[in-house]
Amino acid sequence: MRLPSQHRSLAALAVAVVAGVTLAGCSSGGATPGTSSPPKADLSGVTLNVAADWSGAEQANFEKVLAQFESDTGAKVNYTSYGSNVATTLNTKIAGGDPPDVAVIPQPGLLTSLAKAGSLIPLSADTLATVKKYYSQDWVDLGSVDGKTYGVWFKGSNKSTVWYNTKVYDNAGATVPKTWDDFVAALQKVSDSGVPGLSIGADVGWPLTDWFENVYLRTAGPEKYDQLTQHTIPWTDPSVIDALTILSKLWSNKALIEPGGAQRTFGDSVTEVFGNPPKAGTVYEGDFVAGNITSQTKSVIGTDAKFFDFPSINGSGPAVVGGGNAAVQLKDNKGAAALMAYLASPEAATIWVKLGGFTSPNNGVDMSAYPDDTSQQIAAALVNAKTFRFDMSDQAPSAFGGTAGSGEWKILLDFYSNPTDIQGTAKALEAAATADYK
């Protein structure tokens, strides 16, 4: 998954879809090595064009996955990064009659819009069988439109991780919390030790939507989450008021939170916790925080920097808000179909898993393939979560859920700055949603 500021920019074509994924019962043990390879077609002389939003290290790692496909089949695969403009660029290519053979896209809403426009090829029977074998049925549903399955969710992300500085916590005598009350108590202990308990970076607003979604999923439950995602219930619903009230109590507690969060970027919020010296003890955001820690600080993941699952609220079970990247086929040819089958296999996902910085929702991937305890913990939380829901704001119309300075981003940022106005915030969210959900 790209950083959310990039990932969310694709929401221009998002359609509000139900993305509820219940993952109970998924295996965390994985498939037996050597038994998961898909059939290897002879594609000598075939050239395929593949596009995704990945660049830099992510592109290099995905190209290693594609290189194995080339070695197995004899095909040549050309990769193009569409950066943060996947939706716009892909639709321009389609309109011009020159789409890639396969694209990897980061939103269920984009998948839905492309499928409804007739731009996608459904999965072959064999590939669908592979997907059903290694993915929860609900992941299959997430890649399906009107009874046909188009997407292989190659990459997943866990946005229910809370990261902490182990030295700060040890110095404060704080322990890893399981519940929301314990979480607040841990922040208090850290603050009492002389370091603010929590750093929040909220300058453009999107981190606050993730805060809300995690609290709302745990307090309202998955069915209400789906209804609010679709805007079939209003943002003035009592369930929204409940979630905003919990956030209000936390965000109003100036003794726990490092000042300046309304202007602080997400990246800076990570640096505040893991820089030298640390200026806070804890930062909430998704599994991509690990990349920021590695690139921006000298802290070591798994030693100086660890995470715990977003805490339970009112006895809620394990739940994950997250995202992902789905492979879709845009050209009807043998090579593209073979590549889709390959990307559905544990073998393909395992290549990137071993390289690090990657979480697969494919439950055929052996957990031992993840290169360290932290990445195993992230993957296990994603695969074994009792409830998974795709990021709500990424499913909303762009004007509401994905635009700086307007909609949910701005309203929650205003609420962060003035967290006492719960009713006014709910009314503002409802007014914006009513205008933007067409």
UniProtKB/TrEMBL annotation:
One Pfam family matching this protein: SBP_bac_8
Keyword Transport on entry: yes
PROSITE patterns assigned: PROKAR_LIPOPROTEIN
SUPFAM superfamilies, A to Z: Periplasmic binding protein-like II (SSF53850)
Keywords, alphabetical: Signal, Transport
Signal peptide: 1-24
Highest taxon of source: Bacteria
InterPro entries assigned to the protein according to its UniProt record, in alphabetical order: Bact_solute-bd_prot1, SBP
Protein family membership: Belongs to the bacterial solute-binding protein 1 family.
UniProt xrefs under PANTHER family: ARABINOSE-BINDING PROTEIN-RELATED (PTHR43649), OSMOPROTECTIVE COMPOUNDS-BINDING PROTEIN GGTB (PTHR43649:SF29)
Protein known as: Extracellular solute-binding protein
Species of the source: Terrimesophilobacter mesophilus
